[in-house]
Design brief:
The complex is a heterodimer of chains A (about 425) and B (about 290). Chain A is of the alpha/beta class and about 425 residues long. Chain A contains 18 helices and 21 strands. In chain A, the strands form five sheets. A nine-stranded mixed beta sheet of chain A has the order 5-4-19-18-17-6-7-15-16. Chain A is globular. In chain B, the strands form two sheets. In chain B, strands 5-1-6-8-9-10-11-12-13-14-17-16-15 form a 13-stranded mixed beta sheet. In chain B, strands 4-3-2-7 form a four-stranded mixed beta sheet. The chains are: A alpha/beta (about 425), B mainly beta (about 290).
Amino acid sequence: MWIENVVCPFCGCLCDDIAVEVEDNRIKSVKRACSNGRSVFLHAPTEARRPVVDGKEVDWPDAIDAAARILMKSASPLIYGLSSTASEAQRKAIALADLLGASIDSTSSICHGPTSIGIQSQGEPTCTLGEVKHRSDLVIFWGCNPVEAHMRHFARYSVLARGKFTPQGRKDRTVVVVDVRPTLTARNADIFLQLRPGSDYEVLITLRAMLKGARLDVAEVGGVSVAQLADLVERMKRCRFGVVFFGMGVTQTGGKHWSIAELVALAAELNAHTRFNVMPMRGHGNVAGADCTLTWQTGYPFAVNFARGYPQYNPGEFTAVDLLARQEVDAALIIASDPMAHLPRQAAEHLNRIPTIVLDPEMNLTARVARVVLPTAIYGISAVGTAYRMDNIPLPLKKVVNSPQPTDEQVLDWIIERVKT
Amino acid sequence: MGCISCAGFVIAMSETDAVTLRLKEPTTIPIEADSICPDLFVGRSQAGIESLPAFYGRRKVTLGDLFTVEGENSDQVIVEGALRYVKKIGQRMTRGRVVVRGDVGLHLGAYMRGGEIVVEGNAGDWAGAHMQGGRIWIRGNAGHLLGAAYRGEKRGMNGGVIIVEGNAGREVGALMRRGLIVVLGDVDEFAGVRMITGSIFVSGRLGARAGAGMKRGTIVAFADHAELLPTFRYDCRFQPTFLRCYLLQLHAWGMSIDDDRLEGFYRRYHGDLTTLGKGEILIYDQR
């Protein structure tokens, strides 16, 4: 049986045109997905798995009891992850953090956290990917590489997409890539500006100054000539609808949130001349949802602490890496993420020392060192839920196969009930 | 400004009059101790001070649970012990004096409006954040965001003086609105980022991107080299009169000031040109 219009839960593109063939509760084949999405569907675990406590398989009530005991005993618990689960589960995770007085942080803090901080200081000129498809005639990719990371972005939304005012697709657009190396995305660009690593901030602030007509005493910035930058500013001013997609090449290097603040300010100021927007290239399927859900529940997008009974926000203080590296937490609940594999060594070492609870469909590296492992269903494959695309549009995730595992939402609900009693 | 002699600055505090708090056990669980504030200790007995609230991680406790308290009814406070994980000491204080014997955690003297804090070791990030008055003197190093604004806020330090004898981290005086920050060591990048006005003096190395997005205000680099953003333009070489007034005041507080810096010439750059461009960076010129 073919199931049409399935949303792929893998990356921030959330492609919603996937067709999946299911036979005997197994996914046989997948149409239209990229190689990443195809693997997610074809290799999704569907067999029953029991929870594990201290290396031994146990029943669900015993596992929930063990998890709740760890959290209750802790003086300073951390809830972290959230980017590959549905917003319904994210909401429960926030409720649990509120109940416990825990710190809660999403993987945003190690990818687009600086984007949130930059946007807070500047505002956000933004649009949907639909508008980009139908209207954009200047597309800039800054510090990101969608050809290899968001493989269908070009075809569905940005470079090749044919829209109402862009009937010829690629021919109707100028594509600019700004990066420190010639990536595969750069090969598809009309203009490629290769920056000296770590000089994004200088280039961005120079572009802003040039847009304002300021006289500068320099001939080149960040390895790019002022003439090339002047050409880019002219193109930005002249286009009908411009958009800058940016990735971790700019959020996690050099000026971090100040670079993003400059990029956002540049786009905002370009709106005096034309229509111009910025959009972060979000990585995980529902990492944008983690920001959205945390924001509408607590007022803040990440790095939130409930110790005092109300939400306190402070990146650098309540971000998972900082809490772990400074050894300020004594228990952790990890939801749909693999921090042991991704966090800096100092933070991962502390995570290894403290009792950890993991909710994840896969037996990842963090699950291997966790005290309690709670295997859950996969949203978008074996569970329904809601995920937010990189342009903050919520999309319903479908269930294409049945799973014997409970969802993250159910498991978090059980933990909340157990903690309350 | 080479070395510093604080002899004239540190007035011997009469320990018999002071309230002394000693952390009972070292911990890595964060302690929020905004109740260690001279304003709250005045008019309170020892038992009253012991019953002031504090947070040990997510648990609401009292100061007496975490600290041994000696003394009562005084705005002179001495805090001792392993305090690296103790946050918010002196937050919102308006009077008196807090002496921290050793290193201290985040948010020291945040929102402070008066009085004085002396740290004999290093201070964590956000020391003096949103400070409006008074003086913070850090003998060791300061962390990041010294005298800065919290994320999402429009302005940071709005008055008062912060003096750091060691180095300071990134974003010193970010979004600063008024006041003076003096760092005798090096500062990391983005000193005075988006500052509205105020003064930042750096004796050691001034990190990259100083004054990024600054509207007004003054950043002075007493070392004779600093790497500036392309959005700053050279103006002139001159002897700033106002700087002499500031340096003489610092001298009166017990700092030793080089005659060269007092009488010398400075190169003036103005920026940031993406905004008002009325900020200035002065770099000491040895010629």
